[in-house]
Amino acid sequence: MNWIGLWTLTSREVGRFFSVYRQTILPGLISSALYILIFGFTLQQRIAEINGVPYTLFILPGLIMMNTLTNASSNTASSMLQMKLLQQLPDILTAPLSSLEISLAYIIGGTVRGFVNGTLVLLLGVLLIGLPVSSPIFSLGYIFIVAWTFSSMGLLLGQLADSWDQLAMMQNFFLTPLSFLGGIFYSIKMLPEWAQVLSFFNPIYYMINGIRFTILGISDSPPHYQLLDGSSYGFNLLLFSCCINEKRKENQVVNSITAYFLKEYLQYSLNSHLYQCLELTEGC
Known about the structure:
The chain has 284 residues and is an all-alpha fold. The protein is built from 11 helices and 2 strands; from the N terminus they run αααββαααααααα. It has a two-stranded antiparallel ribbon. Strand 1 and strand 2 form a beta hairpin.
């Protein structure tokens, strides 16, 4: 394990989003405050409570999850895609770092960003509307698990995308709909039976209910399913990312070896041609 290389790459990823906190941290807090003011205080006049909890308090765990998964996934996805477009990824792949170390560095950077944003939204809820947190330690731990899972997903999306348009399409047509259909603003018990069945196939549904259980003590599904869901997705996505990085490293090694021998061959051919020209010149 190359601890120095892992620490260096991780520090770069963490420092990258902290240096532009006006783009990576403040917008999440502002948007969450607007959701609370508009959706919470306004709709609470018509929807007094859900499962015995005031509506404004009910939606806050969902907002925490939405901020966490959005920031965690976008950090790793944008960083990986930027490295590819700027042709800097081959330098990382040829460095003395394994595919696991490269994946971990990017994932840790995205996890820190997602965890920071989720924790700040949690503190915002406590300060703004007096959100009761039944288990702070489990809440922070679950935020970390979700941040790790979607940081791994973001790395996978960044590896698969070849342009910003492709990345935006994956996020807009896959991640965003699953987030809003996962029960941020409602309980699935309010849906028709067929819609409830479809919600069970949405992994984000379990994560939203998991953080809602650790904060408010209520959930639409058994809590142990939610922890197992987040942990298993995070582990599997990490494996997929490592496999893709390993394949890229193998291709980079082959390309480097091919380029080296091609360079030597061209140099040899050029030298031979020049030698023949000199011999012909001396003969004349």
